[in-house]
Amino acid sequence: MESSLVRSFPSPSVLSTGRKNWRGDDFTKFCFPAQVSQSRERDILGAYNTRSHVTNIKEKLALTRRRNNEWIVNAASGQPLKSGPGGYNSGRIWDSVKTAADAFYRFSRPHTVIGTALSIISVSLLAVQKLSDISPLFFTGLLEAVVAALFMNIYIVGLNQISDIDIDKVNKPYLPLASGEYTVGTGVMIVTSFSIMSFWLGWIVGSWPLFWALFISFLLGTAYSINLPMLRWKRSAVVAAMCILAVRAVIVQMAFFLHMQTHVYKRPPVFSRPLIFATAFMSFFSVVIALFKDIPDIDGDKIFGIRSFTVRLGQERVFWTCITLLEVAYGVAILVGSVSSCLWSKVLTVLGHALLGSLLWSRAKSVDLKSKAAITSFYMFIWKLFYAEYLLIPLVR
């Protein structure tokens, strides 16, 4: 029990207030006259320190109770949960995560990501000859190809945005670099990281068709966008179209088919009728995408001297040229399907391509070519037709 002398002392908080703080020497001189023994002095100081410790604990417990009460009130009122002023706010963290994910989603150009993934899956299915080929080995080889190709896809579209920041401020101000959400340094870091990961994965897989597909895509994608002497091929409409055709129509079809055929299944390379059809049809489609993508971007291209076909020939003329090319491709696909010896393949390919051709023509007639929003929406519709075609290609037999 504390002595009456200790109980009469002021509390630690009182001793620390006033015109100057109490020091240890002042405290000892005031409390211990000369006649108090050293042993008695130690007992009193010990009791005082104990009281100070208890006082501090009580203050901390009171603070904890106040914070807990605040937490309960906030929870009951639906306010964000926090532990006090400046405390942790899970809502803000979640908002930051969503904002970062949305910016990367736009930076990766999701319509190209979806197109790349679907094309590789579709072409890989052309290598399947019997039901037993659909095995864990197939899915492993498919996953290796898709992931490596998507990494390279992000490098290509990201490099294009880094090279086109000023143009995109006019044509696509919602992109992260054009809007200022990403700095140039952030963009460079992303594209560098994804290109390294793509090559690393292609190398450790050990598939030469896959590695060469990545390497050629890297070269063409770099030459297409980067602003260096003898490069930036997108300034030439013909060369730009040839780059897109080479990647989307030839490399994707041939290289990824050979990856499955030779690396996964260990079979000799062959160029089957469905593979030749897929390459020819997607050549038409790739030219259309290369031409059509510039139609809504005519304003920025004119300002920065990009001599696209749209700038040279006008939006309406290029628009209907694209529609004609696609309708011819659908007509050829119907003919190919009609001569198939497989009944289910004949029915599905003829009806499927006839339906897609009809939808294209019906939608094209209603497009307002004076509206950039309408043209952009139709461009996204063409990408949907692109996706749909890759669902039909495996049915061609």
SSE layout and pairings?
Layout: H1 4-7, H2 12-15, H3 24-31, H4 38-77, H5 90-107, H6 110-125, H7 136-163, H8 165-171, H9 176-179, H10 184-205, H11 208-225, H12 237-264, H13 273-292, H14 298-303, H15 309-313, H16 315-338, H17 343-365, H18 372-392
Membrane topology: Multi-pass membrane protein
InterPro entries: AtHST-like (IPR044502), UbiA_prenyltransferase (IPR000537), UbiA_sf (IPR044878)
Protein name: Homogentisate phytyltransferase
How would you name the CATH homologous superfamily of the largest domain?
UbiA prenyltransferase
Secondary-structure content class = mainly alpha
Radius of gyration from the alpha-carbon trace, in angstroms? 35 Å
Largest sheet: none
What is the top-level CATH class of the largest domain? Mainly Alpha
* CATH architecture heading of the largest domain: Orthogonal Bundle
Output the CATH topology of the largest domain: Tetracycline Repressor, domain 2
Assembly type: single chain
Q: Give the number of helices.
A: 18
- Average pLDDT value? 81
Order of helix and strand elements from N to C terminus: HHHHHHHHHHHHHHHHHH
> Could you give the distance between the termini?
97 Å
